[in-house]
Amino acid sequence: MPALQLSAPLVLPTVLLACVMVTQTACTPEQATTNRGEVTEGAVKGPEAVVAPRSARASDKPADVQRAWYFPATASEYAKMVEPELGVPPRIDLSEAVEIPVYLDGVQVYGNRRRACDNPSFLGKDTVSGSTLQRHEGRTADGTQLPDVVWVSFARNSTRDPANLIGSVQMIGYHRKTGATAFFESCDQIKPWVTLDEGTLRMRGVMPWIDDPAGFDRAFVPPQASRPQCVQCHQADPFITNDFINAAKMPGTNENVVPILDEGSPFYVIGGENWDMRTVHIPDNRCLECHRVGLSTMSMFMENGWDPNAHMPPKDPGSLAADAAQLLKVLRDGPASVEGAHWVVPPAKGRPAESVGDDYPHKARFNSPKPASKRKDK
């Protein structure tokens, strides 16, 4: 069935990487340290700094359960914070990445296709050629390989007018055994570092790395308290996949660039220990046999025109419509509306998955039912 953040080679609508649901505005080095909320009084500045949400709306938490998020103020400080578990972020050279092809009737096409293509993103944005993906091996600062760590970088082209480049470059680091995850995202104004090939709009350029902390902080930001939790979209696991993302293959193979995880994959966010990590479990629901399902993510893509029963399961679309209906009922009415349905948080740090109830302390609004009158995903 239609799971959004996926775990099996399924056919889904999405796009990859940190906090994908909103477009970030241009930022300056000064904004990179001030736009993510206020440092809690008495907290230490640096990798251990505690960033407090500015408001319930910004943090996507009801006012009575707001809690600090443990992200430092800058990307370079966050890189130091995640290094013990994930090593160092990759150097990103877009010319070494894999271009994500956009197809129309099986033929690769270029330019802004909106939804007029075989593999649209269904993100609420146009589908534009020239985006790239790259998988990077985990490494320590001295170059030692970390075989259990993978990083994925995603350069997303959102340009409508080639004369005015708009896009972003994002990174996710993931530890396959512990579930440790880190999210980095650039500003939209990436023109100092990124250019577009004429005609195809393929993205090119080299992003600043951690050996240039000032440049790295100008180019990237860690998760910000002034924006939604990254797990509002990246609910089921760190990587979102779909026809658009899965069109990018490892060179010389038919293997997707973005790793495919499953329902048992561990997952937690370094610094986001207070984020809402819940997904729903329903006994005997066949949609959940291969992967977890992020209901908020599912809703987002349905609002943008994706029909789960037209895509899932991939070899027999629509055959699990009854199972999909259970998930949609939970999405709209909450777990109590379906017999046996309950919230679970994924395994992490060697701990198994855990069922949680109403006393779960990290509830966020994106996991709360909405009245039918306010839903757009009918």
Describe the structure.
This protein is an alpha+beta fold and 378 residues long. It has a domain at 29-48 and 65-227. The chain contains 8 helices and 18 strands. It has helices at 29-34, 56-59, 75-86, 213-219, 243-246, 295-303, 308-311, 321-333, and strands spanning 38-39, 51-52, 98-99, 102-104, 107-109, 112-114, 127-128, 132-139, 145-157, 167-175, 180-186, 194-196, 203-205, 220-221, 268-269, 279-281, 342-345, 354-356. The strands form 6 sheets. Strands 3, 8, 9, 10, 11, 14 and 15 form a 7-stranded mixed sheet that branches. The chain starts with 28 loop residues before the first helix and ends in a 22-residue tail after the last strand. The model is unreliable at 1-26 and 28-67 (pLDDT under 50).
Describe this protein with a few key phrases.
seven-stranded mixed β-sheet; 18 strands; 378 residues; alpha+beta; three-stranded antiparallel β-sheet
